[in-house]
Amino acid sequence: MRLPIVHHPAYTADIPEDHRFPMRKYAEVARWLKETDPQGALYDFHEPAPISRDDLLRVHAREYVDQVLSCTVPHAVAREIGFPMTESVSFRAQCATGGSLLTAMLALEHGVACNTAGGSHHARIAQGAGFCVFNDVAVAVRAVQAMRMVRRVLIIDLDVHQGDGTADIFAHDTSVFTLSLHSEKNYPVRKKASTLDVPLEDGMEDDEYLSILEDTLKRVLTTFKADLVFFNAGVDPHHDDRLGRLALSDEGLRKREELVFKLVRNEGLPLAGVLGGGYSYNLRLLVNRHSNLYRVAAKYL
């Protein structure tokens, strides 16, 4: 059985060459997947449709949605997001969000599926922030709930930054459990309360991190009975990530993915993986770290 992979060429938006966001990583991750599976034996690619306006409005404010779709986001908001709100950036956000919805639907069908983008967890109800335009996971969760495909969803957010937007969106919704393991002193400065936050000290290395994650995830899986799990597999906890403050190694990140998939799939739960953050300067090394998500996921169908 092949791992469903969701990818769209529009994930790589046109932004200035000297921009600090590594936009090329999305195309490079897809290229890596295809080059390592030339016969198509491991990965089954799916191209998503752009997310609908109605799906976006289940999560985001009408005024903000229409500003993004028409590329009229106020300069102050675009600055907080970190991207110029061009047609290319707007369409990327629509496709990445549609991609996370398709990933959820494929995970429910096949047990596991992964997006080559997604994890825009800083996007709030009324606006985006921190390189996040729409909160793709939140929109996908609301869509599959509206279609009555699931009732209860667990979001495991292991990006190095706290998922403040996701936490805020689901703050009063007991059908969605938001779990965030993140660098305590990192962005955002003003954090929102997740269902469970696990703030981590600067410089934490593999063994301590993995022990905390295992204990936490076992407890959550015992107490919260989900119908679907989303996994934000950001690789910015790596020790040489320029926007992280933790100190995981390449092997630590691989073991993290193994741990999440093993514990979730042992419970028989469908798992939808999204790419999350990763900001190292070396694109080849960055893609290699992101590739762990797909290599590990393919073993748990």
From TrEMBL:
SUPFAM superfamilies referenced in this protein's UniProt entry, alphabetically: Arginase/deacetylase
Sorted UniProt keywords: Hydrolase
Tree of life domain: Bacteria
InterPro entries: HDAC_classIV, HDACs, His_deacetylse_dom, His_deacetylse_dom_sf, Ureohydrolase_dom_sf
Coiled-coil annotated spans: none
Pfam family, one: Hist_deacetyl
UniProt record, GO biological process: epigenetic regulation of gene expression
Positions of the Histone deacetylase domain: 19-281
Tagged with keyword Transport: no
One Gene Ontology molecular-function label: histone deacetylase activity
Entry's family note: Belongs to the histone deacetylase family.
Protein name from the UniProt record: Acetoin utilization deacetylase AcuC
